[in-house]
Specification:
Layout (H helix, E strand, L loop, with lengths): L7 H26 L9 E6 L3 E4 L5 H20 L14 H21 L6 H4 L3 H14 L1 H4 L23 H10 L1 E5 L3 H4 L2 H14 L6 H7 L4 H7 L25 H10 L1 E5 L8 H14 L2 H5 L1
Antiparallel strand pairs: 1-2, 3-4
Helix pairs in contact: 1-2, 5-13, 7-13, 9-10, 9-12
GO cellular component, one term: plasma membrane
Keywords: Cell inner membrane, Cell membrane, Electron transport, Heme, Hydrogen ion transport, Ion transport, Iron, Membrane, Metal-binding, Oxidoreductase, Repeat, Respiratory chain, Transmembrane, Transmembrane helix, Transport
Subunit structure: Component of the cbb3-type cytochrome c oxidase.
């Protein structure tokens, strides 16, 4: 990593840029001085495709000066803005500074709009058309990439429009999840369960908990093996929201349904991460987004 942080690359980029510009000037100077001896008909004697003759007319001066002006502009730009390695430019412009200035401007313009929602509870905002319109745009820009534009998720990404919540679906829990993010960790459990046959029997028992089609004989054999899972999912398989352990009795399958999917989960485990949004969104934006997400699975409550 040190190869990319030392001064060599800064010097290399600076030298390469300046050499390129000087090379363009040198090429222009050589071209301007070079004289081609013309024939009697003012051609260079070069002919292509049998009848395309190259004339010996000098390069237009306006074109040459336009080229020079472009080079001068390039040197001026590199003096004013970053472009020569670590040189920051005389104007002190930076991409980060531009972003921060734009964000500060947007915050100033949006603060009066969000001020109306500051005294409202999430349940109240969920019934406000303007708040939900803003919440929808926030969701599309920051959440839809994983949860989908309809918030119904996909394999590995929770459905936010139903009533199934890994960590709880109250406004406070949703706000906490958006702000701090979540890390879900299902450790590999095959060694604790036993043999491959035991894992298969356990998978059938897990299927039976939700009333899914299963092999009842294998499920009865796998019931005793479920004790290895009960620490997180509970003896009844209803999960534990304090740990983010899924409810195995509700027929909601985040990482795939069926014996093969359950066996893969037991054998390999799974780590899922919901990134924290507190560095990207303001507190006011998180409050509105919380109300929007809560409203997705609480249509009647939001309407009231």
């Amino acid at each position: 990593m040190s190869d990319f942080t030392n001064n060599f690359w800064s010097v290399f980029v600076t030298a390469l840029t300046l050499v390129g510009i000087v090379g363009c000037l040198l090429l222009l100077w050589i071209t301007a001085r070079k004289k081609v001896v013309a024939t009697a008909d003012n051609t260079t004697g070069h002919i292509w495709d049998e009848d395309l003759t190259e004339m010996n007319n000098p390069m237009p001066r306006w074109w040459m000066w336009l080229f020079v002006i472009t080079i001068v502009f390039g040197l001026g730009y590199l003096a004013a803005y970053p472009g020569l390695g670590k040189f920051a430019g005389q104007l002190g412009w930076s991409q980060l500074g531009e972003y921060q200035a734009e964000m500060a401007k947007a915050k100033t313009e949006l603060d009066p709009l969000y001020a109306r929602f500051s005294a409202m509870k999430p349940e109240q905002m969920a019934g406000d058309a303007q708040a939900m319109a803003i919440g929808e745009r926030l969701f599309m820009n920051n959440c839809a990439q994983c949860h989908g534009s309809d918030a119904r998720g996909s394999k590995g990404f929770p459905n936010l429009a139903d009533g199934d919540w890994l960590h709880g679906g109250t406004p406070d829990k949703i706000h906490e999840t958006i702000t701090k993010g979540r890390v879900g960790n299902m450790p590999p459990m095959a060694a604790a369960v036993g043999s491959p046959e035991d894992v298969r029997n356990l998978a059938q028992y897990v299927l039976s908990l939700s009333g899914s089609p299963h092999d009842s004989l294998r499920a009865s054999l796998g019931k005793t093996k479920f004790t290895a899972c009960a620490a997180c999912h509970g003896m009844d398989g209803k999960g534990n929201q304090a740990l983010g352990a899924p409810n195995l009795t509700d027929d909601v399958w985040l990482h795939g349904w069926g014996e093969a999917a359950i066996i893969a989960m037991v054998n390999n485990g799974k780590v899922n991460e919901m990134p924290a949004q507190e560095s990207k969104l303001t507190d006011a934006q998180i409050n509105v987004l919380t109300a929007y997400v809560w409203g997705l699975s609480n249509k009647q409550g939001a309407a009231r």
